[in-house]
Specification:
2 domains; single chain; 13 helices; 406 residues; alpha+beta; eight-stranded antiparallel beta sheet
């Protein structure tokens, strides 16, 4: 598996130009002189800031590219109200995204960049894609799609795309990503890992109402493989893991307050349901009667404890609906599982300082709006007061975020 070291976004809603983590490697051509950010994302990354500062948009940017990968750019734009609803007011250039991904403990890395524009008739299409590999000092195989032509060429590390002639191959599909149809190469396993990121990464806020509906069908065509709510997630787990589900539920039951055991009841219907043996209760409780906090914590626990977890788990304000006990249980679980994981990363937003205080300053990115109404992002450890504390070897207090940023 690998790790998403960083990503950048241009002209997407209020995100006129932001970068988080290592997002402008030197071997990738870009159209401005944006500085290289030398610090990769950690196993846990938290986005924090006031309401309306662009945190949700940053998460949706990943979901947008994932939708483009799985269903095409038409669907990704239509799902969000069309291209004009997404494009930053007053922006220049294309709607653009970039991702830098690296294999664990290896020199191999890949950067993928996507640009989307639209016609005069408001039909979105792919303007360009770029895929650049880096393996030590080896030359870089390049995949490049622009204006309907696909090109492949090997570049020396100091070459820039704008300065060379590319061998062109006819490629006329403007709606679907070339990345999705590009065959994996055994010499470059990081490509398969990158595609897995877009195909199997999960973005969810797991609101309780859809979960209570208990639609146990397989995920629909335009949903992620794990579904968009608890019903879809449980459906995925039961169909994907089969007989291993019992062990999975036995493992996660002690992690949820007041739950002694999770049982699979297949006696009432052709679609098995989950019931819960609760502390102090003689009869199992059906999932429909669980509290909001228990439902959300159950969903997060399943995601973190899966035998084959999603490569990137994106949670929108996971503290919603959780009381203090459930919230601390979640934080404890995150630190125990994700910090030791080589298979998955966690990207979250929050409005609760407890979550930020529980992380390192290098794992927290602070979102604000500038005078023009666009988002600016700063890593918390880059704030002057935090830098001074670190340089003077002062210990970072448990409530460091609450004291310095609130």
């Amino acid at each position: 598996m690998g790790v998403l070291e960083g990503f950048w976004i241009r002209n997407f809603k209020s995100l006129k130009q932001v970068g988080i983590g290592t997002c402008f490697p030197k071997f990738v051509y870009i159209d401005d002189e944006t500085q290289v950010l030398p610090y990769p994302l950690d196993s846990v990354t938290l986005l924090i800031g006031n309401a309306g500062t662009g945190k949700s948009s940053a998460l949706d940017a990943f979901s947008f590219v994932s939708d483009c990968y799985r269903h095409g750019v038409d669907f990704a734009c239509s799902k969000r109200g069309g291209f004009d609803a997404l494009y930053s007011h007053g922006g220049k250039g294309s709607l653009s995204f970039g991702f830098h991904y690296r294999q664990h403990e290896e020199l191999e890395a890949v950067t993928y960049a996507l640009s989307v524009v639209c016609t005069k008739n408001k039909v979105p299409f792919i303007e360009s894609e770029l895929l650049a590999y880096q393996r030590g000092k080896e030359s870089l195989p390049i995949f490049f799609l622009q204006n309907g032509t696909r090109s492949i060429r090997y570049l020396a590390p100091d070459e820039r795309i704008g300065n060379i002639e590319l061998t062109k191959i006819e490629f006329t599909d403007f709606r679907n990503l070339g990345l999705a149809s590009l065959e994996s190469h055994p010499r470059f396993p990081v490509l398969a890992a990158l595609r897995n990121l877009f195909e199997n990464g999960v973005l969810s806020d797991f609101t309780p109402d859809p979960a209570r509906g208990l639609d146990r069908s397989l995920p629909r065509r335009h949903e992620s493989p794990r579904g968009m709510n608890l019903s879809g997630l449980i459906g995925y787990v039961l169909n994907h893991y089969g007989s291993e589900c019992k062990n999975l539920f036995q493992r996660i039951a002690p992690l949820i307050p007041n739950v002694e055991n999770i049982l699979i009841d297949s006696t009432q219907t052709d679609k098995p349901l989950l019931t819960f043996k609760m502390s102090g209760s003689k009869q199992p409780v059906p999932i429909t009667l669980l509290s909001t906090g228990t439902i959300r914590l159950l969903a997060y626990t399943i995601l973190l404890e899966e035998n084959d977890p999603a490569p990137l788990i994106i949670l929108e304000e996971p503290e919603n609906g959780l009381d203090q006990l459930h919230r601390w249980k979640l934080l404890e679980h995150i630190h125990q599982v994700v910090d030791n994981s080589q298979n998955s990363q966690l990207l979250m937003t929050t409005h609760h300082s407890d979550i930020a205080d529980s992380l390192y300053p290098s794992q927290v990115w602070v979102f604000e709006k500038n005078q023009e109404g666009f988002t600016v992002v700063e890593r918390a450890s880059d704030a002057l007061v935090i830098q001074e504390m670190m340089e003077s070897n002062q210990p970072i207090e448990p409530s460091w975020f609450s004291k310095q940023f609130l």
